[in-house]
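BUG: 3D viewer hangs when loading the predicted structure for this chain

Environment: internal workstation, default settings.
Expected: structure renders.
Actual: progress bar stalls at 90%.

Input used:
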Amino acid sequence: MFYFWNNTDKNLRRLSGRTLRNYMTLWRLYLEPRLGRLRLRDVRVADGQAALNSLHRDRPDLSAGAFSLCKSTLSAVFALALRLGHVTANPVIGTSIRGMGHHNHRENGAYSLDEVRQMLTLFSGQVAAAIGIAAFLGLRGPEMEALEPSDFDGESMRIHRQTKTKTDVTIPVIAPLKRLLPGWTERIKLEREEHVIKKGLDGTSLRWKGWYGFRRGLATNLYGLGVPPEVACLILRNSREVCSNHYIRLDAGKKKTEAMDRLEAAFEQAELVQRASAGRTQ
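Structure tokens produced before the viewer hung:
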């Protein structure tokens, strides 16, 4: 398997660079030590299951998602081998990761406008531009990495590469982002920019919520400013249901208090009107 894996990169060029890097990392760290010495055609379902079981014993700190990605990586290798005629079946299909890994995922947080403003005071140049593009355009990761300075025409940004829905759209660029774009001199590399951001946040009250935190933040901030979900979803290029149920992150305690305060005010106002009306009729 080691030899096959290290000679498959030319067959995997159709994958995005980030996906391929993830596959390579998972193979090198978790799968190669357990399966690398076996010949490809000799790998059985039992071998794949034993490798996953061994990983589960050795790394209980891994999430359920990590185990799912490991299984997907192995399956991709054997699917390619099957297409090339090296094997007659994909043994990974018969394996199971049920019960493996924890589900303690990072909170799906959203950056507020104030947090975005604070972050932009800490960084400049390429990193600040990446933060601004994420916060004010709400792009997905592959879309950000595929973006080029020529996609900005002075007023709007053209999103047409690596899009999830294979669409070609433009998004208006607001003034705060326009001021950051001169610092954008090369293609964004999310892992590189993230490394700089995490180091820069050390010792501050800000915490890293992931790149998707900017996308959720844009939806939440637009909603907080009175933009309805059916309009916000046009910018985020997703359905209203996804924007409402997964992107907009409200402070539940604050919103409940505000709602009940409005109810109280409405009731008391109606009561005052009723008393005033009763006084006039006496």
